[in-house]
Design brief:
Blueprint: H1 16-31, H2 53-59, E1 78-82, E2 99-103, H3 104-110, E3 127-130, E4 135-138, H4 144-157, H5 162-176, H6 182-188, H7 190-198
Antiparallel strand pairs: 1-2, 3-4
Helix pairs in contact: 6-7
Amino acid sequence: MAVMIPVDAQPEPASFDAKVRQKGLAYLKRKGFDPGSVPPHSPKLHPYWRDCLDELHQSYNGICAYLCVYIVKVTGGCSVDHFVAKSKQPDLAYEWGNYRLACSRMNSRKREYDDVLDPFTVGKDWFHIELVSGRIYPNPELKNRQRLAVQKTIDRLGLDDAGNREMRAGHYQGYCENKYTSEYLQEQSPFVWQEAHRQGLL
């Protein structure tokens, strides 16, 4: 499962339609939202999507779609990101396929911007990690357009800020110092684990 490695879209839970979609669509109808038009201002919508947060966390093994680390639910750091912003398409606010599991920090940084790559469609090996420092950077072998898109995502989300570098380097160092097993590293920091495999270090 799956920063950022391709994330496999998971099927909608059986309870989702009744718990979220139908309530959401009824709400939009009551409020007079036109599904086919962009609202003139950012609409305040009822957050029925929060009712499926446990299922979203379980479906994606607790891994943030953007930072690619495990989100501990008890910390309150788990959130539903609407990949297509609900301010732009309210009709997608209550659709499972528009949800990405995200830690709160990544969600707040992404906001309504549309220059962030979709974890569901990002290509394999588009992002690389320098494991000792934790630096994340575009695969230099990508075509220029793809490389620029990767860099925009890194910049927009702050994926290469000092804290995230330290976190990734710490995960790898913990494995090297036998604090973590390979299986634990894969569960907690699957992108670091994948990069260590790609580089022949695991």
